[in-house]
Amino acid sequence: MASNIYRNYDQGELDWWYNARGRCKEVEKLKRDQEKGSDACRQKYRCELKIGIGDTPREAIDIYYPEGDGPFPIHIFFHGGYWKSNDKESSAYVADSLVPFGAIAVIGEYTLIPEVRMDELLRQCRQAVSWVWKNAEKIGGRQDQITISGHSAGGHITASMLTTDWPSYDPAMPTSPLKAAVATSGLYDLRPVQLCSQNDDLSLSDDEVLNFSPINQVPKCQAKVWLPVGGDEGPEFIRQTEEMAASWAAKGVKIHSTIEAGHDHFTIMNQQMDGNCDFAKRLRAHLGIC
Q1: Half-sphere exposure of residue 82: CA atoms within 13 angstroms, side-chain side
Q2: How many whole angstroms separate alpha carbon 215 and alpha carbon 190?
Q3: Contact at 8 Å (CB) between 202 and 193?
């Protein structure tokens, strides 16, 4: 009989519950749909692509613009992929829930693990947020209405941006440059990630688990937060979401979580290709994009 390695899970069970792709039977189709949706967004929206904001190729953003003169609210999105895969090009589909409704969509990217460690990955994401805040007026946006979201590892990144001491990172920035956040199916406690098979690629250290688990940190950015998770994602993703919401609520954050019935780790995001669906409407309502 296998022994438990984390909570009541043995190694095989823990690996299974954190294998988001393996647990989704239609993952290849759903990912292809994301790529097709992203290609369509590049065709139908005015956009600026591959804007370099750092010294390496993946320190870059893509910007998608609504019609009109603005100024517009700005939304920043960070993709998932366990910090080791995916890119902004295949993540542009989220613009369909934002751009037609009068928001600028900024799709962020970052150098992947193992090429960099988590501290550098998050620094690059902070750099993207800082660039957007400093250039908000230049791109036709409102500096006082910048919001953020992310999926999976991008949910972790989103939460990490809220724990950032922004004036210490850049004295020109305010404490709360982000007004609202949505972290979908996020990873907020890195300990079980370190113990499962995903760590074969990530090699998370004990110090990284301690320093970069948002559930254990105190948020500094006073943004309202929504944590949606799919009802079919399994007990660990749901636990991560519910315990994160409880932890941050106890620290004074205006935060709530929802379990989206009938959705898995990928269908929950593919809803955003329909800007008129219920999920997209709730997303915009939370972000203040009307």
Answers
A1: 19
A2: 9
A3: yes
Sheet with 72-78, strands from edge to edge, namely 46-52, 60-65, 104-108, 72-78, 141-151, 180-184, 224-230, 255-260
| Spans of all domains in the chain | 4-287
Q: Are 78 and 43 in contact (CB under 8 A)?
A: no
> 1 CB contacts (<8 Å, ≥6 apart)?
none
CATH of 4-287, one of 3.40.50.970, 3.10.20.580, 3.40.1390.30, 3.40.50.1820: 3.40.50.1820
- Assign 132 to helix, strand or coil: helix
pLDDT digits (tens, 9 = 90+) for 155-201: 999 999 999 999 999 999 999 999 999 999 999 999 999 999 999 99
86-108 residue pLDDT tens: 999 999 999 999 999 999 999 99
User: What CA–CA distance (Å, rounded) separates 16 from 20?
Assistant: 8
pTM over 0.70: yes
Is the Cβ–Cβ distance between 166 and 173 less than 8 Å? yes
Angstrom distance (rounded) from CA 56 to CA 177 = 25
What SS3 state is found at 121? helix
**What tokens appear for 257 in the block?**
């979580």
Instruction: Determine phi and psi for 258, rounding to 5 degrees.
Output: -135, 145
Nearest to 131 by CA among 212, 62, 81: 62
How does 72-88 read in b/e, with b if 16+ C-beta sit within 10 Å? bbbbbbbbbbbbeebbb
